[in-house]
Amino acid sequence: MSIHDGHRKRFKEEFLARPDSFPDHKLLELLLFYANPRGDTNPTAHALTERFGSLAGVLDAVPEELGKTPGVGEHAIVLLKVVKELAGRYLNARVEMGEIVQTTGAAEAILRPYFFGARTERVCILCLDGKGKSLGVRMIGEGSVNATQIITRAAVEAALSLNASQAILAHNHISNFALPSAEDKASTRRISQVLETVGVTLVDHLIFVDDDMVSLRESNVPF
Predict the structure, then answer these.
(1) How does strand 166-172 pair with strand 122-128?
(2) Is the pTM of this model over 0.70?
(3) pLDDT digits 0-9 by tens, 54-113
(4) Dmax (CA) of the chain
(5) What is the phi-psi region of residue 124: left when phi exceeds 0, alpha when psi lies from -120 to 50, beta otherwise?
(6) Is the Cβ–Cβ distance between 119 and 20 less than 8 Å?
(7) CA-to-CA distance for 95 and 92, rounded, in angstroms?
(8) 207, 173 in Cβ contact below 8 A?
């Protein structure tokens, strides 16, 4: 029996009881149990997050770069790539393709699952065709909706990749206060203007908190 077996058992139990309490490096440490059955994966998890900057950075890293991290071998690389592929397919599957989004409530129902349990600010875009049919949802940012340049570029890329004519932006407030800030309003106007240049109309911007949602369009915020 490995000296790590007891730790691993407790670690798994803790995760199952409180998964949203795990920071990124602890999620990686747990995941790497299945690539390294006996060793201590904590140093490897820390090394990965330090090298690539975030969980998203780790999952986006190319296999050759992942392999340069001490403790990361072929099994770990494949596992990380499988997790990213599964996550993308899971998110895509959460959206019923072809659903007509005619109301704010319909948009809320599609987008709210993307913010369940979020402990950081996330930004998503729901892409629609000219008749309002759902084409898919893409997460285009994590951290702050007010990183306008990065978010705007990602919004344009997502809309073009899905051949969208319309789009609904969405993000969450960690403060649990859903009213739009001045920065939210300014960012929305900027993103709307840039989307218009590629033929995509921003229909609305929804702000989520755990038990509430505010629509900028229904709040008569101009954009």
Answers:
(1) antiparallel
(2) no
(3) 998 899 899 999 999 999 999 999 999 999 888 877 766 665 556 789 999 999 999 998
(4) 64
(5) beta
(6) yes
(7) 6
(8) yes
